[in-house]
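Notebook entry, structure prediction.
Reason for the run: the old model in the group folder had no record of what sequence produced it. Starting over properly, with the input documented here first.
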Amino acid sequence: MASMTVPDLHIDSLQSLAQAEVGCDFQIRALEGPGCEQLRNLGFCETLRVRKLAGGRNLICSVCGTRLAVSRDLAEQVIVSSLIAS
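New structure, fully documented this time:
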């Protein structure tokens, strides 16, 4: 099965990490906003996989095997899509 590329995705399939469902795996598609440099310093980058572990005022997520807490404001700047089961 061929993997999907960013142009193949419908805009409806994109959401912010803050909006994403807890317990699911996502692929980071874009970092948008004033916190992009801070997010990249934390290890977030385009095409990376992330799992949202907990929601709330601060979100807990797993990136590259490391658990990170990020503010809801920063999580709003991480645009993700659901991973397609292969």
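Summary: The chain has one domain: 9-82.
The old model has been moved to the deprecated folder.
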